[in-house]
Amino acid sequence: MVLPPSLRGWLGTIAALAALVVVVIGVLYAGHDEPGTVDRWIVRPTADSVRPPWRNVALATDFLGEPAGAATLVVAAVAGCLLLRRPRAAVLVVAGAGQAVVTTTLLKPVVGRTIHDGHLSYPSGHTAFLTALALVVALLATGRLGLGRTAGTSLVLAAALVAGAAMGWAQVALGAHYPTDVLGGWCTALAVVPATAWLVDRTVDAEVWQQRRRQRR
């Protein structure tokens, strides 16, 4: 299984709360074209919020969410799963990360929030992607290490926090997103990945059951 039974309850609750946050922020900032109050409290993003050498770090991190960088990460993760003989996890890598990106892409025109020259910004797809990938890897590690509910949940959330914070910082530093866009992207991944993992488990288990049933005939 890609969604350890010990984590289902906790991650299900977290996913529901994360989805609620995505909706609430989306409603609050729908159609806006400037930073909100919360964004101004944190930082007002501009195109030159950071300078070298940290700008280079931000650009390198941002590349991981671009098509070429994201594809490289996904291929590497899938290869790792296959080497570990975890084909179901490989499916989740593609499905989880892909669904996070698709969800943010569909939400952007619905919310209609923009930044710099009318670019749709909510929620952050880059943040959602890297967070989703980190969640999948953490779920795989939890299963292989046989971690319990507390340790497993802590590992999954820590991985999501580190990945989301790194990409979120880069997006705000480069002026590509408002801080609340980043939060929306992070929460999108938290909502989508557990649901996708559950669906992958259900689909594969159902197929295995059907195969065994046919073999008995």
List keywords for this structure.
mainly alpha, 217 residues, globular, 2% strand, single chain, two-stranded antiparallel sheet
Task: Note the topology.
Elements: H1 5-28, H2 37-42, H3 54-63, H4 67-83, H5 87-111, E1 114-115, E2 119-120, H6 125-145, H7 149-173, H8 179-216
Antiparallel strand pairs: 1-2
Helix pairs in contact: 1-7, 1-8, 3-7, 4-5, 4-6, 5-6, 5-8, 6-7, 6-8, 7-8
Describe this structure in words.
The protein has 217 residues and is mostly helical. It contains eight helices and two strands; from the N terminus they run αααααββααα. It has a two-stranded antiparallel ribbon. Helix 3 crosses helix 7, helix 4 packs antiparallel against helix 5 and helix 7 crosses helix 8. The chain is globular. The chain starts with a helix and ends with a helix.
